[in-house]
UniProtKB/TrEMBL annotation:
UniProt organism field: Paenibacillus polysaccharolyticus
Pfam families: Polysacc_deac_1
Stated name of the protein: Polysaccharide deacetylase family sporulation protein PdaB
TM ranges: 12-31
Gene3D superfamilies associated with the record: Glycoside hydrolase/deacetylase
NCBIfam families: spore_ybaN_pdaB (TIGR02764)
One annotated GO biological process: carbohydrate metabolic process
Keyword annotations of the record: Membrane, Transmembrane, Transmembrane helix
An annotated GO cellular component: membrane
Domain of life: Bacteria
SUPFAM superfamilies linked to this entry: Glycoside hydrolase/deacetylase (SSF88713)
Gene Ontology MF terms in the entry: hydrolase activity, acting on carbon-nitrogen (but not peptide) bonds
Length: 258
């Protein structure tokens, strides 16, 4: 009787090992099938925030059209002694507003790329994606005298193909963890409350300096004041990335409907 139980125990253990190995193999096949792409340290990733205990935060401003909002925003930043922020500029806008690009650069703020045409990159072929990023890169480099290496995609739209192409062109894709929703013009206090309530150490805040965002420059003084009172230091995105490894999020291929 004892020998029977010993034999059965060994058999059960062997079967469990086979079962675990089979499950592991199925998992690998599933991931490699392209159904899900999860960020890893080796794979290109988009930055949403940086895990850190230090109270540092990056204010970012997207600009794709208009010439009425950038100057007031620059004035607010300078009057409130915020010397570090990151502006993501679309290249067609930059080409038609070189004086504003120069003003941003001369004020010492970081400039990143907001791409060329303002359309969703997931709808483009890899060659088209490469052309969009490269065209913007050339224009911004000519205007600023410095090659940008940060990319805020139009509408924040991307999939793993976009990340791979951007990475091959030495770009880091930058998203955001706090969306001010200022482009909706929901009211100055609403913008202030939303940003301040969601802000956290290592955060990247999305704001806009295009003409469609009519309340951003009015909300900005209170945002700056409240965050300063909470002990936050304003840094550029590049400086933020130096604090720690980036925090990635899962990406699903939109082309496959995932």
């Amino acid at each position: 009787m004892n020998s029977f139980y010993v034999f059965s125990g060994k058999k059960i253990k062997r079967n469990l090992i086979v079962l675990v190995a089979a499950i592991f193999a199925i998992g690998i096949i599933y991931l490699e099938s392209g159904n899900v792409s999860v960020f890893s340290e080796e794979a290109p990733s988009a930055v949403y925030s940086v895990p850190t205990d230090k109270k540092v935060i990056a204010l970012t401003f997207d600009i794709s059209w208009g010439d009425k909002r950038t100057e007031p925003i620059l004035k607010v930043l300078q009057e409130n002694k915020v010397q570090k922020a990151t502006f993501f500029l679309s290249s067609p806008w930059s080409k038609t507003h070189p004086e504003i690009v120069t003003a941003i650069k001369d004020a010492g703020y970081e400039i990143g790329s907001h791409g060329h045409r303002h359309e969703n990159y997931t709808s483009l072929t890899e060659e088209q994606i490469r052309k969009e990023i490269s065209t913007a890169h050339s224009i911004l480099t000519d205007l600023t005298g410095k090659e940008p290496n940060l990319l805020r995609l139009p509408n924040g739209d991307f999939d793993k193909r976009v990340l791979q192409v951007a990475n091959s062109l030495n770009y880091q894709v930058v998203q955001w963890d706090t969306d001010s929703l200022d482009w909706k013009n929901p009211g100055v206090q609403t913008i202030v409350d939303r940003v301040v309530s969601k802000a956290h150490p290592g955060d990247i805040v999305l704001l806009h300096a295009s003409d469609s965002s009519k309340q951003t420059h009015e909300a900005l003084p209170a945002i700056i004041d409240k965050l300063k009172n909470q002990g936050y230091e304003f840094v550029t995105v590049s400086e933020l990335l130096n604090h720690s490894s980036v925090e990635g999020k899962e990406v699903r291929d939109q082309a496959s409907g995932q």
